[in-house]
Amino acid sequence: MSKKRYPLRVARGAHGIRAQDLRTLARTVWWARRWIASLEAMRLGPRFGRGRQYAVAGQVTELVLEGPHVEATVVGSREAPYRLTLDFTTPDSAARERIAAAIAAEPMMLGRLLTDDLPTEIESLFRTEGIPLFPQAEPLVWSPTKSVYDVKMHCSCPDWARPCKHLVAVMLLLGEEIAQRPTTLLSLRGIEVEDLVLKIEDLRLKIKSSTPQSPILNPQSSIFNLQSSIFNLQSSISNLQSSISNHQSSILKRLGPIPFWRGTVRCVDSLARIYGRCQPVAADASAGKSIDLRG
User: Fold this and answer.
1) Phi, psi angle pair for 292, to nearest 5°
2) Cα distances (angstroms) measured from residue 44 to each of 36, 168, 177
3) Phi, psi at residue 219, to the nearest 5°?
4) How far apart are CA 19 and CA 32, in angstroms?
5) In which element (H, E) is residue 71 found?
């Protein structure tokens, strides 16, 4: 018995947000792999592929993140676009305070977050409080009449399945954003990195106020340390000048794809040409040579 295949009707010219590297997203950092694995665990079937096509084609024309609340607009096969909302379950105030205090107590953990690295210990902190860090297929609370999931999803499309292909497209775009900025994952669970920085600053002030002040430094030793620092800085600049030519576009490669990009050409590819032209000028400027920016 042959199966009928219906072509995916995607409106052209939506000029929305385009996914850039969905094929390699699951092979990058561990939290991006977990995000994709959590979507695959929902047993989406054809909806996953159709949602990926929507994300690549730029059918998501609007995407707004306000902490754990996400709003999006997706252009589908109908004339009117679909309105979507996602609400992520967050820990209560007491649990949120415990998670923030545990992160602030480990400056290295917060430092890794500020450099766009997600320590695996953070997932354990959320699991201890009974809240998953990543979306999960199983309900938090199950009952024969109504189950409670960790992400409440709504889409104005006629499809009854959740998540539908429009929601999948939005979650894939969120995955690209989380891959580059894992602090977005914490924001979706109600914890802002700015609050963590303020908390660790409060701890630092408390420690400073409880410890005696250090004695005045010897001026001669301070001058010696300053001269040594200047010498090390000059040496570092010389090493930088000798290595600039050997690392073309290394910064762009480290940045990776720009999340929520709307262009038809990848942002990294567009900037690579400009970066290549600016590189020799930057080398001359660091060497103290006169440069002409009129060209």
Assistant:
1) -115, 115
2) 12, 9, 21
3) -60, -40
4) 14
5) strand 69-74
Q: Are 81 and 73 in contact (CB under 8 A)?
A: yes
**Interval 22-68: pLDDT, tens:** 777 777 889 999 999 999 998 888 999 999 999 999 999 999 999 99
pTM score above 0.70: no
Beta-bridge partners for 69: 66, 87
Residue 76: in which H helix or E strand, if any? none
Q: Are 194 and 82 in contact (CB under 8 A)?
A: no
Do the Cβ atoms of 281 and 290 come closer than 8 Å? no
Q: Can you give the residue ranges of every domain in the chain?
A: 22-203, 219-286
Residue 271's alpha-carbon distances to 99, 105, 127, 265, 266, in angstroms, are 39, 39, 40, 10, 9
Q: Residues in the chain, how many?
A: 295
| Among 170, 134, 166, CA closest to 149 | 134
Transcribe 197-257 into DSSP letters: HHHHHHHHHHHHHHSPPPPPPPHHHHHHHHHHHHHHHHHHHHHHHHHHTT-TTHHHHHH-S
CA distances (Å), origin 171, targets 78, 86, 119, 262: 21, 9, 22, 16
* Token pair of 205 as six digits: 């002030």
